[in-house]
C-alpha cells in the first residue's frame, strides 16, 4: 500500500460567496492563494518526501497542488477521477438552497449539510466507488511510497472513508475537511 496524504484545495471564489461549486472551475481567492503557499511551506518543512503528487483537473485544486509541487520539487499529475462530486442542479446555487432542491434527502455533518441527491448529481455511492478506484490504482503504482492527492471536500471524504473501510455515510460523519488541510490516510 502507498502512504497516502489527501489535501483539500485552498479557498476559491465560490467558497467566498457561499456557492456550491461541484464541477464549477473557479480560481482560488486571495486567501486561497496564501493558504496554498502556506501549506506548501508546511509540507516542505515537514520533510515528507512525495514520490508523486496527483491533482483534480479543476483549477482550485491544481493551483494548490502546483504550489506544493514547486515547494517540494515534485511535478503535479492530473487525475480526472479526483474531480469533485458533480453537484448537478445545485452547482452554482447558494448553500441555503440545498433543502430547496434536495428536500429532506440530506445528512448533517459536523459543519456541512450534505445533499444526498438532487437532479443530475453524482451519488455518494458512485463517488465512493471512484475513491476506491483511485486508492487501488495509487497503491498499485506506488507501493510503500508517499503520495499526495490534492482534491476537494466530498471526494476527499470518500477517499478517507474508502481507506478506513467504512461506508460513505460514515465517511460524511468524519470531521470536517478544511481548505488546505492535509490528512494522512
TrEMBL record:
Cited InterPro entries: His_Pase_superF_clade-1, His_PPase_superfam, PG/BPGM_mutase_AS, PGM_Phosphatase
Taxon lineage: Eukaryota, Discoba, Euglenozoa, Kinetoplastea, Metakinetoplastina
Pfam family, one: His_Phos_1
Protein name: Putative phosphoglycerate mutase protein
Cellular compartments per GO CC: cytosol
Listed SUPFAM superfamilies: Phosphoglycerate mutase-like
Superkingdom, natural source: Eukaryota
UniProt-annotated catalytic positions: 9, 84
Annotated substrate binding sites: 8-15, 60
An example Gene Ontology molecular-function term: phosphatase activity
Amino acid at each position: 500500500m502507498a502512504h497516502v496524504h489527501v489535501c483539500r484545495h485552498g479557498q476559491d471564489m465560490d467558497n467566498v460567496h457561499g456557492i456550491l461549486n461541484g464541477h464549477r472551475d473557479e480560481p482560488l481567492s486571495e486567501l486561497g492563494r496564501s493558504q496554498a503557499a502556506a501549506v506548501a511551506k508546511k509540507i516542505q518543512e515537514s520533510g515528507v518526501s512525495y514520490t508523486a503528487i496527483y491533482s483534480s483537473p479543476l483549477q482550485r485544486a491544481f493551483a494548490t497542488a502546483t504550489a506544493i509541487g514547486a515547494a517540494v520539487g515534485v511535478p503535479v499529475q492530473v487525475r480526472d477521477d479526483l474531480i469533485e462530486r458533480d453537484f448537478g442542479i445545485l452547482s452554482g446555487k447558494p448553500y441555503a438552497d440545498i433543502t430547496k432542491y434536495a428536500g429532506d434527502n440530506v445528512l448533517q455533518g459536523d459543519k456541512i449539510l450534505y445533499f444526498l441527491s438532487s437532479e443530475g448529481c453524482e451519488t455518494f455511492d458512485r463517488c465512493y466507488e471512484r475513491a476506491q478506484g483511485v486508492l487501488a490504482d495509487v497503491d498499485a503504482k506506488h507501493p510503500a511510497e508517499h503520495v499526495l492527492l490534492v482534491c476537494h471536500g466530498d471526494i476527499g471524504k470518500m477517499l478517507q472513508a474508502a481507506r478506513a473501510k467504512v461506508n460513505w455515510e460514515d465517511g460524511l460523519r468524519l470531521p470536517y475537511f478544511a481548505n488546505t488541510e492535509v490528512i494522512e490516510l
